[in-house]
Request: fold
Amino acid sequence: MHARTGMEKETQILDRALELLEAQGPGGLTTRAVCEAAGIKAPTLYHYFGDKDGLERAVVQRGLTDFMRRKQQATSSVDPLEQLREGWDIALEFALKRPALYALFAQHARAHPALIADAYALMYSRVQRLVDMGRFRGPVDTTARAVWAASQGALSLVHSGASRKEIETLNDLLFDAIVGKLLLSS
Reply:
């Protein structure tokens, strides 16, 4: 019973931290604010997360788990190009709906590139299938990096001050441009 109570407490703390993050941005995610929001004392927070960095890592990990669950769900198509587009759009929608979490995730991904390994591997597998099918030009490593770089360019627009409509328009332009360059003529 005690372990369950501990997991519930940890979940409660993370829930409050995510609420604070989305309401106030990464700057509002302080240990003091999280403790106040969760109704706990600092030693409790430190018990579960070690320090502020540990709390941030836990928040990022939870967000990443939710994000990857969505990306790995069965897609509406068996076409790897449509799956690639769907994954691309899921990433942008995540960043647009949860900009503060995305900003924190991006900050942590720069410091810990392993955070993006699963997302990159999923995209890479779709590009691999397109190359294997003769639809995308290879080599696969270069092609996958090009797709990743273009998608990251689209994601970078979220914190640029551009409107959602402008971001979505540029997102479509970037996807179409990279795919147009990579597609082999029939």
